[in-house]
């Protein structure tokens, strides 16, 4: 589990899964560029308190090198400038790209169809969750092609093309899966692996706040939603990413849509509380029925 001398970019690492993935890469010794819009001096439209500086410090405490850079990944000029910075500081090296930009929760109007849903919110969701990923990959992939190696991870929700309960949400998340598959085909002549990765029921900071609990007493949340019992902390997907990044045979997954629960069985890792949640199995047995 050694990523010493490896260079990673986690786009959208201010909080949640992105923060945890950055920290886990740092735990293995990687240099991790932590990007997002919330800094110590400026709060993003998400109106959350977590900052990229805090994430970078967590990466350093875990054993890596965390570098915070304020980037709006929907802005081509900002992304181009950022990748040029990575290129210059790391002598053209980029080994791992994690596309985790999202911010779509406050934009999703559950229970409304394509006609009733606010169109501006729907389009903004595509801009943040799809366009931002396209822009970031466009500028980052040339560094990987130059070195004929790399790992691209598209963070999504789900492992299939099934409808996810909202037109705009579903379109965004399925797009991320197909982006991973399309890049795998596009880059098959290079030693670049492209995959999609999904968490299960994620206990992000925002979700913990929603249920009025902390990571220490999260099970109290089951009084509000019984399915919360099958939830997982962000560090579960962090472990999944770390194992993928350290796997010398990761190309066997090229073009695949993977999940935390499946990879926990492949690599035999557990969540921060010692559990091994399996959202896929739980969903089929308790939610679909």
TrEMBL record:
It comes from Halobacillus yeomjeoni. The lineage of its organism: Bacteria, Bacillati, Bacillota, Bacilli, Bacillales. Signal peptide: none annotated. Gene3D superfamilies: NAD(P)-binding Rossmann-like Domain (3.40.50.720). It holds the Pfam family adh_short. SUPFAM superfamilies: NAD(P)-binding Rossmann-fold domains. Transmembrane segments: none annotated. NCBIfam families: PRK08303.1. This is SDR family NAD(P)-dependent oxidoreductase.
């Amino acid at each position: 589990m050694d990523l010493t001398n490896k260079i990673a970019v986690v786009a959208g690492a201010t909080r949640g899964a992105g923060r945890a993935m950055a920290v886990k890469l740092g735990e293995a010794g990687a240099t991790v560029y932590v990007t997002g819009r919330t800094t110590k001096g400026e709060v993003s439209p998400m109106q959350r308190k977590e900052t990229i500086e805090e994430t970078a410090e967590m990466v350093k405490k875990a054993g890596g090198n965390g570098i915070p850079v304020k980037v709006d990944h929907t802005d081509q000029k900002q992304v181009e400038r950022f990748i040029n910075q990575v290129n210059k500081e790391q002598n053209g090296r980029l080994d791992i790209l994690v596309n985790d930009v999202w911010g779509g929760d406050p934009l999703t109007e559950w229970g409304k169809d394509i006609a009733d849903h606010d169109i501006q919110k729907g389009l903004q969701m595509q801009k943040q969750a799809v366009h931002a990923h396209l822009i970031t990959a466009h500028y980052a992939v040339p560094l990987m092609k130059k070195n004929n190696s790399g790992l691209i991870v598209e963070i999504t929700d789900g492992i299939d093309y099934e409808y996810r309960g909202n037109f705009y949400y579903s379109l965004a998340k399925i797009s991320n899966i197909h982006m991973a598959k399309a890049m795998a085909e596009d880059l098959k002549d290079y030693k670049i692996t492209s995959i999609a990765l999904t968490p299960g029921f994620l206990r992000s900071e925002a979700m913990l706040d929603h249920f009025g609990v902390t990571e220490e007493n999260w099970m109290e949340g089951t009084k509000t939603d019984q399915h919360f019992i099958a939830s997982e902390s962000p560090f579960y997907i962090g472990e999944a990413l770390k194992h993928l990044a350290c796997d010398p045979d990761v190309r066997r997954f090229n073009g695949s849509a993977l999940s935390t629960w499946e990879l926990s069985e492949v690599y035999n890792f557990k969540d921060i509380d010692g559990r091994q949640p399996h959202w896929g199995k739980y969903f089929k047995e308790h939610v679909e029925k």
